[in-house]
Design goal:
The chain has helices at 18-29, 73-89, 110-126, 184-187, 192-199, 214-217, 239-248, 252-258, 275-285; strands spanning 54-62, 93-104, 130-138, 144-154, 170-174, 204-210, 227-230, 264-269, 290-297. It has 317 residues and is an alpha+beta fold.
């Protein structure tokens, strides 16, 4: 078990104080945090100018919501950055720099926080991200929340948004889906290279990452008056989803659509595209699986997914 909290005050952030903690955070991040004014130390970080379109996203990790004591602190730090990287990937971008704000209970363990930042720093170096600033505030007892804002830029002439799908357009998804609680929710690989390649393909008309489950996320891609007509039999189901199905008694494909935190790419390709040729071109560049799962239509066939009975994760419900 890897609880962020301790009853021993000497081991807690309360024994350090904010100023000493910031000094140690710089050391824990190492080369992932450049010197001021391009990193921690000034009122604002200074980011280099760029001619590309700018991308900004933000996501947190909160104890009890996005991770529990079974997840190692390093993996929590990695997840914080990677779930933001997945958003950048979904628009065909590359990451540049990030700021991280913390809300810490006074009893947060210094050793746990050290490992959290070392995981974050190692992940930032792997993906070429500079950690350039942030903030620390005291939170209530038993609370840990880390909030990262990631800046990125387009890799080419365009960014791919969620809008753009039309009737008969094809729906593809990368990877395998479902069963994220078995460990995938913090062990996934953001699809940055794949997203950049997809953004360069004219036939890709819309895209997003799957964070709350396709059952919810597909709604953001579906144009008014259409439905996502998806075949359950072709959904790329993970082994973890199959294991979850054995426990729940539900079909594995329902887990693939509802479990969430897959962090794969959901892609809409123009109806004018040769779907087989598109898939063949994909596998010339990537080993990551990609699967055609359906099309947008006026009405779904009876054997296709009935979305009214399925729900992904929705905050505040």
């Amino acid at each position: 078990m890897s609880s962020p909290f301790t009853r021993n005050r000497a081991q807690s952030v309360a024994a350090h104080g904010e100023r000493r903690l910031i000094t140690e955070i710089r050391a824990w991040l190492g080369a992932a945090s450049p010197p001021a004014p391009f990193g921690i130390g000034d009122d604002c970080a200074v980011l280099p100018a760029t001619r590309q379109r700018q991308l900004v996203t933000t996501d947190p990790v909160i104890h009890g919501q996005h991770f529990d004591d079974s997840v190692p602190a390093r993996a929590v730090g990695e997840k914080l950055l990677k779930r933001n990287l997945s958003d950048i990937a979904a628009m065909g971008g590359r990451p540049v720099a990030a700021v991280v704000s913390l809300a810490l209970a006074p009893e947060t363990k210094v050793a746990w926080l050290r490992d959290f930042y070392r995981g974050l720093g190692a992940c930032a170096l792997e993906y070429g991200v500079k950690i350039v600033g942030g903030d620390i505030t005291q939170g209530p007892a038993g609370f840990f929340g880390a909030f990262l804002t990631l800046h990125g830029e387009a890799t080419g002439r365009r960014v791919v948004t969620r809008s753009g799908a039309k009737e008969h357009d094809a729906i593809f998804v990368t990877g395998r889906l479902g069963g994220s609680r078995a460990g995938h929710h913090f062990k996934f690989t953001p699809r940055l290279a794949e997203g950049a390649w997809l953004a360069a393909q004219r036939e890709v008309v819309a895209m997003m990452d799957v964070s709350d489950g396709i059952a919810k996320d597909i709604q953001s891609l579906t144009p008014k008056g259409l439905v996502a007509s998806v075949w359950p039999a072709v959904l790329p189901v993970s082994r973890a989803a199959e294991a979850a199905a054995r426990r729940s008694g539900r079909p594995a494909w329902t887990h693939a659509l509802t479990d969430g935190e897959d962090y794969e790419l959901l892609i809409v390709v123009s109806a004018k595209t040769d779907e087989i040729n598109f898939t063949m071109r994909w596998f010339k560049h990537f080993k990551t699986p990609i699967q055609l799962i359906g099309h947008f239509a006026r009405k779904a066939a009876p054997e296709h997914v009935n979305w009214s009975n399925l729900h992904g994760y929705e905050h505040l419900r």
